[in-house]
Amino acid sequence: MINDKVYKDNDALEEIIFQFKSLEKSAMVLTSALAHEKAAHNELKGRFETVQQQKIAQVEDLNTARSKVKELEGRVKQLEKNELSLKEKLKNFKQFNNIVKNPRNAEATAELKTKLDDYIRYVDEAIKVLHDL
Q1: Where are the domains positioned within the chain?
Q2: Is 14 exposed, middle or buried (0-12, 13-18, 19+ CB in 10 A)?
Q3: How do residues 48-66 score in pLDDT, each as one tens digit?
Q4: Which of 27, 50, 95, 96 suits a disulfide with 112, CB 3.0-4.6 Å?
Q5: What's the pTM?
Q6: How many CB atoms lie within 10 A of CB 96?
Q7: Are 76 and 91 in contact (CB under 8 A)?
């Protein structure tokens, strides 16, 4: 009876030792898996931060590009206005040129001189604007 009890206690002890070793192995596997997951998490966190910095840089570049586009649109509008004005001045100049060719129009010659002075001033201003752009 004592032998049976010792034998049963020995079997129970071996079972407990087996379960303990099994738990110990499971704990090591879980510890290893946790370390792997932490490494993967840190790598993903680093990638995320890199992508986030790239996004910030792209947003800044986009905002800069938008500002330049708006500035260029303003310049284009100004150039279009100048072009229309130059076309009008050229039209007037051609009309006065035809009038001046007629010798009977001495008054037109004086008016043309005034218009030419205005035109020269305007062209000078247009050149300055274009030079600034």
Answers
A1: 2-132
A2: exposed
A3: 999 999 999 999 999 999 9
A4: 96
A5: 0.49
A6: 20
A7: no
